[in-house]
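Posting for a labmate who doesn't have an account.
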Amino acid sequence: MARPRTFDEPQVTRQAREVFHDHGYAATSVQHLTAATGLSRSSLYGAFGDKHGVFLRAFAQYCDDNAGAIERELAGDDAGARGRLEHHLRTKVPDSDGPQRGCLLAKGTAELAGEDVDVARIAGDFYATYERALTACVRSAQAAGDVRADLDPAATGALLLSVLRGIETLGRAGHPAEALRSAVDAAMAMLAAPGR
């Protein structure tokens, strides 16, 4: 009979995801993971299967946590929708110039999605959730008269997702924060209803 686990699996997953976030998938060794989690190789593999299994669990946890946070941030009453949307875009601009850590989603997708169907599926599910949340927020802002009524909400949600991922990628590369803030200004100006 298998012994019950004596560690907090979600916490171990969070510890492992920080290692993958810092080093990427390929450069993360089992030694990195055991040092970060305090687990032996056998305990780590007993719980997750192998390094790939650890990464998939960490990647899925990261995506789930972020999807939930995004949905909560963008949901609410129609009157505040435009403000929530603008706040969301502005908080994605780095506070300073220079290379940024970036997000595990972007790193993992860039490194693995082309060859790993599980990573591609998890990332695809996250982006679909993100796009739906943006679309719903645009629709709410339109209902309040704060976003142009002639815009298709779904197409606008897809456009904003592209802007957001562009901001993340350029920020990671050290693109000037002021230029990224200007991109947000342009996106919000494009959305603005006449007279707003």
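Reply:
Got it, the structure tokens are right above this. Residues 59-191 form a domain with the Tetracycline Repressor; domain 2 fold (CATH 1.10.357.10).
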